[in-house]
Amino acid sequence: MLRAVREIEGGIRLSLNAAGRLPVLRKPPILESFLRQVYFTGVTASTGVVLRASLLGVLIIAITMDVLDADVDLAVKILLLVVFREVGPLAAAVVIILRSGTAMSAEMAMMRISGQTRALRYMNIDLYDYLVVPRVAGVMVATLALTFYIQALAVAGGLLFSPFIIEASFMELASRLFDLFSPVDFYYSVIKALLFGFAISACCCYHGLNPPDLTQNAVPKVVTRAVTQCAMLVLTINAVFAYIVFGILFFGLVKATV
Amino acid sequence: MSAVLQSEARAAPQLALRYARHGKREIAIDVPAGSVQRLELPDAASRSAFVTAVLKARCEADEELELFGQPVKNLSGRARQKLRSRLGALSPIVGLINNLNAWENISLPSAYHGKPSLAEVATITQEVLDVFGLEPRTFLARVPDELGRLERKIAAFARLMIAGPELAIIESLDDGLSRAECARVAGFEQEYRRRHPAGTLIFVDIREE
Q: Is A119 close to B109, i.e. CB distance below 8 A?
């Protein structure tokens, strides 16, 4: 219990520190580290998701029309709701936790254990500036980009390949999509993707910099803890966000009636 | 009277460092400013405690430390930081960063702090590598795991020369080096002296018993 409280406090402190130091991104080595993070987290992850993301849209449209006996309108509406608001950001978050979260927490734990963080301190280089800020900012940008990428692929895949398995033409699906798309879908996924990126990177940095002990055995423990907590954080943010947006904004606060 | 005291103070050599450790193994070290000293401490723990205390400009309860005539106990955070910027070390505790190549390691502090300029860093690095007969293009592109012990020490030394500390500590210089390599790193003292004629250099090692 005490450890959980300490972790929450440490995580909040790290997040506030990182958020307040964003201007240091202008320094050349930090900017370089930020770009490297964007490349490794976003660009290298993008090739692996092409097929899966494309199939996602096909599956959503085909299942909705076949199982729910829905018309084109409902199928496209569900595609928009599911892909833009829920699955897009969540899929990007899962890819980033599995690919970059593990790597980031292990790398930072190794740096801490082998005394490299101490070397940085002796060179008067702030650990938050050099290690945390570029990773947090880089992962946020990469999560946002990957979310858009997955959304675009899923929608494009859905529109292009669905006509082969259901009775609806590409033009029909596309025109309904443009009719139904609203800016709320866009803002919703932007804010969500940025929050996911922030939570994942802050959690991984916190665990990487605070291993349970300073031996090699601590690295797997750090990675396990970071990945588990990242997944929990992402699911919690997703639930809270959905409740705030759908529950309060659209229907008002639910009041109990006696 | 005061004139006499002043002239005596002027005559006495100014100390760059005064360190004392009480307890089982008493240690007392005085290092005059501008000198080159070779210290042999009784064990690895004492060596590590000494180097850590100096680099942090902070000492434990059983230690006393003065840097450039200034006791480090009760120093404010800013004063301590200022003092630390005058110190540097070539030591395993200030090692290289594993995921950066040699050039990035050498230029990291100056790129972060904004001084000296990268052009100056490149010039100093080139000069240091020339002295030790290393080919810059291949050497600087390698990450620390691809460098030998001697090469890692030279990279760390180049970084130290760029920082140009008034007080430099070189810890266990010969550790893990062959006899031929030891002869090459002996040139560190001359190179440091050439670049920082008024600087203080301390070689720290463990006494062999």
A: no
Residue A100, domain extent: 2-251
Express each pLDDT in B67-114 by its tens digit.
999 999 888 989 999 999 999 999 988 899 999 999 999 999 999 999
CA atoms within 13 A on the CB side of A2: 0
Q: How far A140 CA sits from the closest chain B CA (Å)?
A: 22
B104 touches chain A (CB under 8 A): yes
B14-206 architecture in CATH?
3-Layer(aba) Sandwich (3.40)
Does A118 reach chain B within 8 Å, measured CB to CB?
yes
ipTM of the complex in this document: 0.86
Question: Are B62 and B27 contacting, i.e. CB atoms less than 8 angstroms apart?
Answer: no
Confidence of residue B9 (pLDDT cuts 50, 70, 90): very low
Where are the domains positioned within chain B? 14-206
Does some domain include residue A258?
Answer: no
Sign of CA dihedral B145, B146, B148, B153: negative
Nearest to residue A43, comparing CAs of A1, A103, A122, A96?
Answer: A96
Question: Are residues B81 and A123, on separate chains, in Cβ contact within 8 Å?
Answer: no
The per-residue pLDDT for range B109-140, each reduced to its tens digit, is 999 999 899 999 999 999 999 999 999 999 99
Do B104 and A114 lie within an 8 Å CB cutoff?
no
Residue A137 lies in a domain: yes
Q: Name chain B contacts of A123, Cβ cutoff 8 Å.
A: 94, 108-109, 112, 163
pLDDT of residue B26: 87
Name the helix (H) or strand (E) containing B36. Answer: strand B36-41
Q: Whole-prediction pTM value? A: 0.85
Here the tokens at position A182 are 């609203």
Residue B13's pLDDT is what? 62
Domain count, chain A: 1
The answer to whether residue A87 sits within a structural domain is: yes
Give B 118-177 residues with CB within 8 A of chain A. Answer: 163
- The verdict on residue A256 lying in a domain is no
Q: Pick A118's closest partner by Cβ from B93, B113, B114.
A: B93
